[in-house]
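User: Run a structure prediction on this.
Assistant: Running it now.
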Amino acid sequence: MPATPDAAARPPPRLATPKRTTLGVCAMAKKTQSKPMREILSRLPGDAFEIIIFQEEVILGAAVEAWPVVECLVAFHSAGFPLDKAIQYAKLRKPFVVNDLRRQHLLRDRRLVYATLARAGVPTPRHVCVNRDRDVEQTVEELDDAIVVDGVKIEKPFVEKPVDSDDHNIRVYYPTSAGGGCKRLFRKVGNQSSKYEPDLHSIRREGSYLYEEFVDTQGTDVKVYSVGPYYGHAEARKSPTLDGVVLRGADGKELRYPVILSWVEKDVAFKIYHAFRQTVCGFDILRTHDGACLVCDVNGWSFVKKSRKYYDDCAALLAAMLVGCGGSGPPTESDGPRRVTVQLNWFPEPEFGGFYAAKERGIFEAAGFDVELIKGGAEVPAPQLVASGNVDFAVVSAPQLYALCFGRQTPATAAQEC
């Protein structure tokens, strides 16, 4: 392992020039102006971040070259959002992107969501796909109490979902032994979220659909809101497959109750993060009576509607992730390699192997950086060296980073939230 100079041998500290990291928020106005978004952005430390909201008329009408230039980017798809333009912008400006943009295309097709979950080892309900939008030959046979697709039989009750994730017109078909008919699920209208249709027995014959086995969850749905791979806030609500009546509290909001995730469900959250690379993400799980956990939907960027603790935790985790992303942009060819100093928080050991390998293999140099790695030790105050301007970057612990961002120690509950 190459020798590295001690921090003590460094030149006298130079004064650091305070600079806020520019954080762009690129989404439809309904999302950027929502209360959860405003609650979280207001909790980011103002001396560390300059928040720039991309106006909807700019997103929709202007070329990406005219969009604001930022160092970090929050961007996510919703109805009407030009996702491909956002991808072009990220390619042009190269900001640090919080939620992977290309993988958001996966979230728009329920077939791709289930296929991605399967590759990640995340269990889903047993299902088949009817692909009328693809040039494929399929045999689809509808029986009184089942559907058979290419020889695979799904018995009633089963769920019929449009493959388009933005289409929430979902149906549940019941067997004749339970009275038959169908229950239509839809976006809440007043206090109603579903309606039973006793004379609707046949599946839809136009469009592409997923057909999956109905999972009995004892009338409860569980929604998980994750931030990164290790944090998850879960809530339960009355399932719309019951009587379709939305339970609301005195404030008029839908009643939801906090849920403690099992270690299996935490592992599912970890796998979903790595499969879709959506730092802020929501997904739905079905808890069966025998303790199984099945994922039936992944929504991408989703917020808890009313939870001060979630707003605090989400802002803290985002700040810890983004606080080091500020800078003057990547070096140009005329500038030559930019010299960067990185203070380690301990002596050279295997956990720093990635840094040394990148240096030895020329990865830093290829990216335009001349990186100097400085060994640490018990008496080396890595955070203070960055604050004083004596080094450019430092490796610090998560509690140290939290304290630097918010001026207080990490709450003991934060590590246990997931």
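The CA atoms of residues 83 and 105 lie 8 Å apart.
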